[in-house]
Amino acid sequence: MPANTHHASVTTAATVAPTTVTAGAAGRVVRPERLRPSLVTVRRLALAAVVANIAIVASGGLVRLTGSGLGCPSWPDCVGSSLAPTRQLSWHKYVEFGNRLFTYVVLAAVVAALVAVLRSRPRPDGLRMWAWLSFLGVPAQAVMGGISVLTDLNPWVVAGHFVLSMLLIAAATVLWWRARAANADAGPVGAPVHPLLRRLGWATWGLTYAVLCAGTVVTGSGPHAGDPSAPRIAIRSESVAQLHADLVMALVGMSFALAIAVTATTADRDARLATRALLGALALQTAIGFAQYFDKLPIGLVELHLLGAACIAAAATAVVLATGQAGPPARAHGSALTS
Predict the structure, then answer these.
(1) pTM of the predicted model, to two decimals?
(2) Would you list the domain boundaries of the chain?
């Protein structure tokens, strides 16, 4: 080989190599592309964020139902200048402080999802915005919780705290859904959803949040205030409970009609499974709601009802996403609504 040719090949190798490999701390070669999370990883981390946001609703419910809402009487510290509970506080401090600590679990989940989205290549459209919304919602929720404590569990503030949790569940659900759709590679399996059904999907979502908001007023006027000294909403609990029940019945009817319609029109599998999942969750939630009402609101059933509300918030969001598609998304792993 001529000398100048050899020199050119060496120069080319020296120029290209640094763009494809880097040296690790122990001299090991690390390929930058291996540091990029796959869309499967993004999808799973987004699902973890959904689960964490639902779990903290259950955790917050335990705080309220055990009367531990002021177990840590100050914020952001627990008491005085101490971030952790002190011996002078009752056992309620551990319940309230445990809920505060669980916030870091949620934060870890959404940060992991955010970092995965920002590092992924190629990055599907829309993922970054929903990842940021999920992340920024955690400190916003922490501040809302602090305001609840500083206002001695004002029922309207506590209601806003709960509704914000439902919105964060919705945001995390959108992130998971879009990551899941971007990861799929199979062909369509159904017909596009009719525009009227898309509007009905949105109406179902809106009615779901009307039910959730009415439920917060029921709780705010009921016996589970979070602390014996906490103020209550000055309204007859029975009256607003009847309104809440009426809205639930309307939501069940609308969800049933939507499930029948997407089945009859042979819509995409996502739309069929999402509407059926919402309908099933609503049926179970309705049974729990009536049982807790007639059994004088036992703590165990109320906790299940709160958990069910969080799951319904995610399911209703999935219905909007499934029915709002212009056409059926691609899929890689057969099951439409599994991780």
Answers:
(1) 0.81
(2) 38-323
